[in-house]
Design brief:
8-stranded mixed beta sheet; 30% strand; alpha+beta; Aminopeptidase; single chain; 4-stranded antiparallel beta sheet; 2 domains
């Protein structure tokens, strides 16, 4: 690395953190291509999708670390409204936090993360949320920087091969399933209504405006997904989305009306059925697994829906709990957050302590479809 001479000594060029210039988008995307994601694409691919489809994306929402006009790393800020205790909280999603492997150990990512928190605070946000991954961006890494893991228990769903012998219900009756595409405005309006009803009392769900709803078809956390709507007697009662995440079939989002438990259970049962030509098995993933192996189980994110659990059992689908700590959150403005929630701060309470108190492990649902 080049160094400047001053007073007979060598000094490293000063690193600057600033917003992304429009002419640097391609360079930053190329840098992010070094980050290989398990779903068969790169963080650069994800960044390009955000640039094209995320209505909240702008150059001003990307911070980059620069040294002598060379990009060392960067981070994206994605404005969201996240439900917490029934309130819509101004939240900044932390995405694409990355420095090249050859430059790690210099504290660049930490500096970027702190500048991101300062930027969010100055813009009126109260929370930051990030999705930890493999080393070095682990939950422990973020915990040391003021983030709290938002834990819960996800479920591993499998079809019990003995269920039919015990009289489990397998006939979907008057439930019909239809694939959802972005052009189907009627289906989308039904899904919006279901999402609003199902998510209203669940902390962690993202409040989507019309622009985010239009974008959600393109901002899936994986290159390919299935999106289904369940109807009973022609009326929409439930919906579900699924994709391959970390090489396993994952329900990225579900929702139902109060009378839609059977419809959602039928939809999940359909996701567990192998396909002759599986729409999710493309590219490198298809060379490692077949449809029967892929659909031998389904990961369902943390949820609290007793009616769905019972409906799944009636269809011979068993659930096995497993710890889930996919999201980490940080207060960037503790006073404003406590005031919005109308929750008094305890003497000496800091951001992590406040979050642990108001976000019990079983009280959060953050759909992977909203992950970035």
């Amino acid at each position: 690395m080049a160094e400047d001479s001053f007073a007979g000594e060598y000094r490293r060029p000063k690193m600057e953190i600033r917003t992304l210039a429009s002419q640097e988008r391609l360079e930053f995307a190329d840098l992010l291509d070094e980050w290989r994601l398990a779903e068969g694409w790169t963080a650069g691919d994800r960044f390009r999708y955000q640039v094209e489809y995320d209505p909240t994306w702008s150059d001003e929402n990307v911070l980059v670390a620069v040294e002598q006009d060379r990009l060392l790393g960067g981070v994206s800020l994605l404005p969201r409204q996240v439900r917490v205790l029934g309130h819509a909280i101004p939240t900044g999603g932390i995405s694409n936090l990355f420095t090249s492997a050859r430059l790690r150990g210099r504290g660049i990512a930490t500096d970027l993360l702190e500048r991101a928190a300062e930027t969010l605070r100055s813009r009126g946000f109260e929370l930051a949320i990030v999705f930890p991954g493999p080393p070095p961006a682990t939950p422990d890494y973020f915990a040391k920087r003021g983030f709290v893991a938002w834990c819960g228990q996800q479920s591993i769903l499998r079809v019990d091969p003995e269920a039919s012998l015990r009289g489990a219900v397998t006939d979907p009756g008057d439930i019909t399933l239809e694939p959802v595409v972005s052009e189907n405005e009627r289906a989308l309006q039904s899904i919006k209504a279901i999402h609003a009803a199902y998510a209203a009392s669940r902390s962690g769900t993202v409040v989507r405006d019309d622009a985010l709803w239009r974008a959600c078809f393109h901002l899936s956390p994986a290159p390919f997904e299935e999106f289904w709507l369940a109807r009973r007697g022609g009326l929409a009662v439930a919906y579900g989305r699924a994709a391959i995440l970390d090489d396993v079939l994952t329900a990225t989002e579900i929702g139902r009306f109060e009378d839609g438990a059977d419809g959602l259970a039928a939809l999940i049962a359909h996701l567990l059925e192998p396909r002759g030509e599986d729409p999710l098995l493309r590219g490198a993933v298809a060379s490692r697994i077949n449809s029967r192996e892929l659909r031998s189980f389904l990961v369902l994110p943390t949820f609290d829906d007793i009616g769905l659990t019972v409906a799944l059992e009636h269809r011979g689908i068993r659930s096995h709990p497993m710890d889930d700590a996919r999201a980490s959150v940080r207060c960037v403005n503790l006073t404003a957050l406590a005031a919005r929630l109308d929750v008094d701060l305890l003497p000496g309470e800091d951001g992590p302590g406040f979050l642990r108190r108001i976000l019990p492990p079983d009280g959060m649902v953050y759909w992977p479809s909203d992950r970035f």
